[in-house]
Write a structure and sequence with these properties.
Length: 392
């Protein structure tokens, strides 16, 4: 419904709409950049339920549009023209009306691009894939099969309603699949497959921080990391910063959001950045996160070294950390100075090392994170903050 509505609006305004159909956010970014389109548009609920569908806007270089550009577009759609003038949204007529083009060939070309990225074959490796009943369901298996791996797949029966019922935010089924079948690794994607959470051969979760540790060390070995280190966010574990620092790799921290990560990467010239959620950006391969690229490069690290995924995490010890999301009626009102003051008091009184609180960018929730010497202190701190939010 949303796709047809969007295409109708685009063609009515005079634009040509090239339709890639069910595909990943990263593939739209890749094709927009390599095929010279003016922009890309992705309809996606990201890691959320289907009823949270929204639109991601991608610039000609494959990067997500910044907040200022998105705000200007929203004003334009509300009838506020540049300079503050008001008017109707312009429509094309006669021969200026745009056309719709079936562009499934773009998605197929992206698949070929993914297959070309691995420096080695995965023959003999057995891996699990959880596609979250989302956009990777037709892509992930074909890519890893082509690279020689034997694949075991979950979340590949989308019905339009069951997206993200498994995947990167719900890794339990994949962990069990890896353990029960003795697999070498597993990779869980979110609905639009710009995130990837790995599972090692023991069935343990390797989140985005662990993935960045592995990839940063590999890039340093290849002399592709440079001297500027990597970029993570304030939600990343302090243990990541310490572990990378011990290996001479700096870790700059930004606000949460891949836009902020990519902006800082561009400023610093960083080759790698990402989020604890598994949204990893490798600048050599694109301007936004790509869960499939992340999975390929992680498996490549293990294959080339001839060691299990867990071995690549040696030297990384996460600090005890807990996170909590609290649903609120109005997240703008809930995220107040009073809340920030409460977090500071809870941090001090419960003996936490670090507390971070922020409104979600996609849901009506406040996200809270606490780090301490043990999880019990983290839990007490989060409980106090959650009670305050629920009593508002």
């Amino acid at each position: 419904m949303l796709e047809y509505s969007l295409v109708s609006g685009l063609t009515a305004s005079g634009a040509d709409a090239h339709i890639m159909h069910v595909t990943t956010t990263a593939s739209v970014s890749y094709i927009t950049r390599t095929d010279g389109f003016d922009c890309g548009i992705m309809i996606s609920a990201s890691h959320n339920p289907f009823y949270d569908n929204g639109i991601k806007l991608i610039g000609a270089g494959g990067e997500k549009l910044d907040g200022g550009a998105v705000a200007a577009l929203e004003d334009y759609l509300d009838g506020v023209m540049p300079g503050g003038a008001e008017g109707d949204f312009p429509m094309a007529s006669d021969g200026d009306i745009g056309r719709s083009v079936d562009y499934v060939s773009g998605r197929n070309r992206y698949i070929g691009h993914l297959i070309s990225l691995s420096a080695c074959s995965f023959k003999g490796m057995r891996i699990g894939l959880d596609c979250a009943n989302g956009s990777a369901w037709q892509i992930a298996k074909s890519v890893f099969d082509a690279l020689g791996a034997k694949t075991y797949v979950l979340g590949c029966e989308p019905d339009g309603l069951n997206i993200n019922e498994s995947g990167s935010t719900r890794t339990g089924a994949l962990c069990e699949l890896v353990r029960e079948n003795g697999l070498d690794a597993g990779f869980a994607f979110d609905g639009d497959a710009d995130r990837c959470i790995a599972v090692d051969e023991r069935g343990n979760v390797v989140d985005g921080d662990g993935e960045m540790f592995i990839l940063a060390n590999r890039l340093k070995e290849l002399r592709e990391l440079g001297n500027c280190g990597i970029v993570a966010t304030v939600m990343s574990n302090s243990g990541l910063v310490s572990a990378l620092g011990a290996r001479g790799i700096e870790c700059a921290l930004t606000d949460v959001g891949d836009r902020f990560v990519y902006k800082k990467m561009c400023e610093d010239g960083a080759a790698l950045g990402g989020e604890k959620s598994g949204h990893i950006i490798i600048s050599k391969y694109g301007a936004s996160g790509d869960g499939l690229v992340t999975a390929i490069k992680l498996l490549e690290c293990a294959a080339e070294r001839g060691v299990p995924l867990s071995e690549l995490l040696r030297g990384y010890e996460p600090v005890p950390q807990l996170q909590l999301s609290v649903r609120v009626r109005d997240k703008s009102a809930a995220f107040s100075q009073e809340l920030i003051s409460l977090c500071e008091r809870a941090k001090s009184e419960e003996g936490c090392v670090r507390v971070n609180v922020r409104p979600s960018g996609t849901e009506p929730v406040i996200r809270v994170m606490a780090e301490a010497e043990d999880e019990e202190r983290c839990g007490r701190c989060l409980a106090r903050i959650a009670r305050y939010l629920r009593d508002m």
